[in-house]
Design brief:
The chain has one helix at about 100-105; strands at about 5, 10, 20-25, 35-40, 45-50, 60, 70-75, 80-85, 90-100, 110, 115-120. The protein has about 120 residues and is mostly beta strands.
Length: about 120
């Protein structure tokens, strides 16, 4: 089986931090580009961040640049999204995704996780 599982979502106050994790089962994430996406109620899913298969290239949406950091832990076969200085508008279901090429994961990922809810509220 090829499976991606997100975890780490929850409720946090504005200005707070959360760390999301994307764990892989059935394949080695070392060979895949990984992206994070999010979808708020009533809105289309949007790209958040991505890291290349080699880990050397990172890309962030302008809305999260400087606040979010995507990183790999190849030994654990996971990819994390560290989210700092969270805003109410960051509230969404966050999904991790994987693709065999960096350009593909940014636009049309091949594999998706089930999502984890992030709620930023006072």
């Amino acid at each position: 089986q090829v499976q991606l599982v997100e975890s780490g979502g929850g409720l946090v106050q504005p200005g707070g931090s959360l760390r999301l994790s994307c764990a892989a089962s059935g394949f080695n994430l070392d060979y895949y580009a990984i992206g994070w996406f999010r979808q708020a109620p009533g809105k289309e899913r949007e790209f958040v961040a991505a890291v290349s298969g080699g880990g050397a290239t990172h890309y962030y949406a302008e809305s999260v640049k400087g606040r979010f950091t995507i990183s790999r832990d190849n030994a654990k076969n996971t990819v994390s999204l560290q989210m700092n200085s969270l805003k109410v508008e960051d509230t969404a279901v966050y999904y991790c995704a994987a693709a065999t090429r960096y350009s593909v994961v940014i636009n049309t990922p091949e594999y998706w996780g089930q999502g984890t809810q992030v709620t930023v509220s006072s």
